[in-house]
Amino acid sequence: MSPIGDIxxxxxxxxxxxxKEYGTEVTTTLYxxxxxxxxxxxxxxxxxxxxxxxxxxxxxxxxxDQVRDVLTVAAAEGxxxxxxxxxPEVPAQAADEHQxxxxxxSVTRDQVDEGAEAIAILEAAVAxxxxxxxxxxxxxxxxxxxxxxxxxxxxxxxxxxxxxxxxYRARDTSxxxxxx
Length: 180
What we know:
- This protein is mostly helical.
- Helices cover about 65% and strands about 0% of the residues.
- Among the domains are: about 10-85; about 130-170.
């Protein structure tokens, strides 16, 4: 486990099956991604166990960097709650909820919850977009058009349509359009 650094026995036990099934590169990537997702919090054997459980059903990864997408989506979907980012700091609530609503610039608990849910949805959407991008490449379209030209063309048009709709919903409406 030298590429990872110093790990304790419990962490090593959790990483051993990953090493056996996927190899050193995926194991190292898994540990580093869990560490990044945990942020300032210490990585525990339980964290690695949860990450390994999310990874196990895949059996095959096209690339080691897909580990991050798998873990991010699992955390966003609630399948890996230990890997979810820490809850955002919630501003102190006014004693009276009506007063909080009336104060200009105040943020309510509902707004914080709604924002956190929106971030989770966007993170999951980005992870799914990456997976779609990776899977549609290669000869996928050509093979589909060869197998069933009508259905393949219909699916291609539908894929483009939903990509355009997603881009439209994600547009910057603040008038401050950046390069992102």
